């Protein structure tokens, strides 16, 4: 009889703990961590300013600056419902800042059919002067190119065909044809990155990798001797960046492990 009472008390306590645990896990905090590599070799700011990387065209280059904008982290449900996390994040690899982003918005735990984020801003958010922190970071795009903000700044030096060190500035923005200043023609170049389905049962971190080499190779093999500077007003170059950038990001892992 005593054993039965002891078991009963144990089951009651276990159910109470499960109830508390379920209450705790009804909402989850989400964070995104960004790391970088060059075709599998890890890259951090300690690797900058050293001409050591070879792109798909065979150009040898360094990285001296890398920062890019992430926005609209979205959790998709199978019924079409979407939960968009507040905020955006300017990942600054050069200064080693904002490599992680945690949203103040929590999301309900459960199954999600897809998780996505945007590289850059969509047209709804890409509004000149709207973000004081981005303004102070000199992230703006000139009005003659349509205004709004950069999506990425990747800069360094490369060895040209005359064996000289030449600076390059691989800056991604919304593509604009400004051949007629009174009639600017735009093409969207923000990139939706889809990470796939996930089960959220607790506070969760998504670990995202950017393969920097992809910006120079797939599907467009990038020749720095031809495309190394003044790329912001180059409509075709911006479209090529957009196409290559679709292959740059991947999901390394989700932690804690999905239940």
UniProtKB/TrEMBL annotation:
Transmembrane segments: none annotated. It holds the Pfam family MbnP. Keywords: Signal. Residues 1-19 form the signal peptide. It comes from the Bacteria. This is MbnP family protein. Residues 28-224 form the Copper-binding protein MbnP-like domain. It comes from Gaetbulibacter aquiaggeris.
């Amino acid at each position: 009889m005593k054993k039965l009472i002891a078991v009963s008390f144990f089951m009651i306590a276990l159910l109470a703990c499960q109830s508390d645990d379920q209450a705790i896990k009804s909402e989850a905090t989400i964070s995104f961590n960004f790391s970088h590599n060059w075709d599998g070799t890890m890259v951090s700011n300690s690797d900058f300013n050293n001409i050591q990387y070879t792109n798909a065209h065979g150009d040898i280059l360094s990285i001296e600056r890398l920062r890019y904008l992430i926005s609209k982290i979205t959790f998709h449900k199978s019924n079409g419902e979407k939960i968009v996390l507040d905020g955006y994040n300017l990942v600054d690899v050069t200064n080693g800042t904002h490599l992680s982003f945690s949203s103040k918005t929590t999301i309900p735990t459960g199954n999600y059919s897809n998780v996505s984020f945007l590289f850059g801003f969509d047209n709804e958010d890409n509004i000149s002067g709207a973000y004081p922190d981005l303004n102070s970071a000199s992230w703006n795009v000139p009005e003659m190119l349509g205004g709004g903000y950069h999506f990425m700044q990747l800069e360094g030096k490369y060895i040209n065909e005359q064996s000289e060190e030449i600076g390059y500035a691989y800056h991604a923005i919304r593509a604009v044809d400004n051949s007629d200043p009174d009639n600017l023609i735009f093409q969207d170049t923000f990139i939706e990155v889809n990470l796939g389905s996930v089960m959220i049962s607790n506070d969760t971190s998504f670990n995202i990798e950017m393969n920097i080499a992809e910006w120079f190779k797939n599907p467009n093999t990038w020749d720095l001797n031809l495309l190394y500077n003044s790329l912001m007003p180059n409509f075709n170059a911006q479209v090529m960046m957009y196409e290559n950038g679709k292959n740059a990001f991947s999901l390394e892992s989700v932690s804690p492990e999905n239940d």
